[in-house]
Design brief:
Strand content: under 5%
CATH superfamily: Tetratricopeptide repeat domain
CATH architecture: Alpha Horseshoe
Largest sheet: none
């Protein structure tokens, strides 16, 4: 009788599921477009991600605000700033920034849905469960 460690069986199972999802199309989510085509803006966004990841949210906010001075109508930058504000605990600001992102998003329903999910999280963290539920429903409608 061949004895295979349980850990090894689990690794094969996970790999098999991942392979199946990848080749059946279930795992294929179209990639998000880049935040910008401007290399200076991309560098600022990368810096902001690093700063936010290191817990320096105020630095990340300042960096994203610099990027927004370059591209003030870029909805993805507004969304990035909303995310940083959310992680920094500025829930009302995060919601306002996500709304602004949606105002520049045009017909990009995917981005608008992401903004509504961000709004839902901000509302949930503020204790507004009804508002969070309403925002989640709006996100779901946009995804249909």
């Amino acid at each position: 009788m061949l004895r295979v460690p349980l850990k090894r069986i689990a690794q094969f199972a996970v790999a098999g599921v991942a392979f199946t999802l990848l080749f059946t199309g279930c795992a294929s989510v179209p990639p998000s477009p880049p935040v910008s085509e401007n290399s200076a803006v991309l560098a600022l966004v990368d810096n902001a991600h690093d700063e936010s990841g290191a817990g320096r949210n105020s630095d990340a906010v300042a960096t994203l605000e610099r990027a927004l001075r370059i591209e003030p109508r870029n909805p993805r930058l507004w969304q990035e700033l909303a995310r940083v504000r959310l992680t920094g605990g500025a829930y009302a600001q995060a919601e306002t920034l996500a709304v602004r992102s949606s105002s520049w998003a045009g017909s990009d329903n995917r981005l608008r849905a992401e903004n509504w999910r961000l709004i839902a999280e901000a509302r949930r963290l503020r204790g507004d469960t009804a508002g969070a539920r309403a925002a989640t429903e709006r996100a779901e409608k946009l995804e249909r």
